[in-house]
Amino acid sequence: MNITFSADREKIELARKFAQSRNTTLIALFREWLDVLAERAGRAAEYKALMDQLRYVDAGRKFTREEMNERR
Prior knowledge:
By secondary structure, the chain is mainly α. The protein has a domain at about 10-55. The chain is built from three helices and no strands. The longest helix is centred in the middle third of the chain and has 28 residues, at about 25-55. It is elongated.
């Protein structure tokens, strides 16, 4: 899929220089960023699904601050 962006010329040039310093291209950096973003979104969805699945869990009472911070 193709995406078209518009951005400030200065920012694009800075990003190109950054990519060049890493021996890659701006497109490759963008694809890497998109992969990270998609992975985070997937983990967030998995976490939400787990929390929905565990919604029934009840500790039976409220814990004090001291109890929640207790180290064992």
